[in-house]
Amino acid sequence: MLSHDFQPPFLNESTSVSLHPTLREMQLFHVEMEVSLAGRTLEQTFNQNPLLPGVLLVRQGAFVGMLSRRQFFAEISRPFGRELILNRPLDVLCHLIQTQPVIFSADTLVFEAVQRCLQREFDLLYEPVVVELTHNDYRLLDVHDLLITQSRIYELALHMIQDQNEDLNRANAEITALNDRLKSENLRMSAELAIAKKLQKLVLPQDAELHAVEGLEISGFMEPADEIGGDYYDVLVGESGAKIGIGDVTGHGLASGVLMLMVQTAVRTLIELNITNSVTFFDVLNRTIYKNIQRMKACKDLTLALLDYRDGTICLSGQHEELIVVRSHGEIERVDTVDLGFPIGLDQDIAEFIAQQQIHLQSNDIVVLYTDGLTEANSIYGQQYGIEQLCAIVQQNRHLPTAAINQKVIDDLHRHIGTQRIRDDITLVVMKQK
């Protein structure tokens, strides 16, 4: 049986090749010839199809081997080769040659097939290979076509690498230009943040102001999580005594820092106006901050506690963290402020929530104000510092000056945090009755 089912080699300038083609994707030759046919029939087939690299040999339709063009013409070129081969069945020629064909699966990668073909003996290097499409369905592949395909894969890969390099160079140029712009923008933003940070430090109470409060020894500490913090504390002396405030704006960063500055300005303004009634004071302050937050379109508010101090008595109002009192003999009192106020800037009218609580201080009694960045600071194991630890450190060091107590707490806090970055603003104010 003779079956012609092939076309000229598929490789030409217009053919596209992927980077990982398989033998199935190549155009294969399909010529089957019964081994019972005479060699002259095969000669005629080769002469009629000069590009045919070989034929598949079958016996009653079943594949038994392969004869290449090179092998066939080499044998008939020998002395008496034509007389010996052309008039006899092809089976005779198969016994003379006795070469086992190389058989590949159709899913074999071209790269792998080339490597295996190049490992053959030199005289078999360019022999065509057999490709099995499915069970008992075979085709022939010209090794010359295989090598050209491999060459085109390398060429395609080279072009792709060159194109990628050009894309990378363009992207790198764009990134460089963007980095230059970002550096310029970062310099501008850093300058703005530095100015805002400096402004924030400028409005913190100075040592002279702290020392001006008659009857109290006061020390304060503030450490922002970012360049600009959202914590607030102040000590302001007025005609009716000293007003000491501590607050915590939600979040931290520029917007929180700006809001903190607004609160400081508003508090000082109300003190200058000699507003002494706590309900009126908080009501006006809250309305001012609330309207500014609405204008800013910011989701911000703050807890705020204000202490009016005079002659050993504290009038506490506003909602913030607990106020800690450590008596001179070591007793600890914790004053909850949840019922003394309402978050500032959260609602326009908070007057009905404002209340007062009086605390009387004796000589060497200590009052501690703080923000949750201190008590909620985590260790590397996720354990919070906690108000109990804060109370314990103050209690242990109550005989020291307020600046030393402050430092003892901060040192203990940093020991607790370890090498981790601070995640929230930390503020601590320690006061001692003289």
Separation, N- and C-terminal Cα atoms? 120 Å
Q: Label the overall shape.
A: rod-shaped
Biggest β-sheet description = 5 strands, antiparallel
Q: Could you tell me the number of beta strands?
A: 17
Provide structural commentary.
The chain has about 425 residues and is an alpha+beta fold. It folds into 2 domains: about 1-150, CBS-domain, CATH 3.10.580.10; about 205-434, Phosphatase 2c, domain 1 (4-Layer Sandwich). Helices cover about 40% and strands about 25% of the residues. The protein contains 12 helices and 17 strands. The chain has helices spanning about 40-50, 70-75, 80-85, 90-95, 110-115, 145-200, 205-210, 255-270, 280-295, 370-375, 385-395, 400-415, and strands at about 1-5, 30-35, 55-60, 60-70, 105, 130-135, 135-140, 215-225, 230-240, 240-250, 300-310, 315, 325, 330-335, 355-360, 365-370, 425-434. A 5-stranded antiparallel beta sheet has the order 8-17-16-13-14. Helix 6 (about 145-200) runs parallel beside helix 8 (about 255-270). The radius of gyration is 46 Å and the shape is rod-shaped. It starts with a strand and ends with a strand. The relative contact order is 0.08. Residues about 1-15 have low confidence and may be disordered.
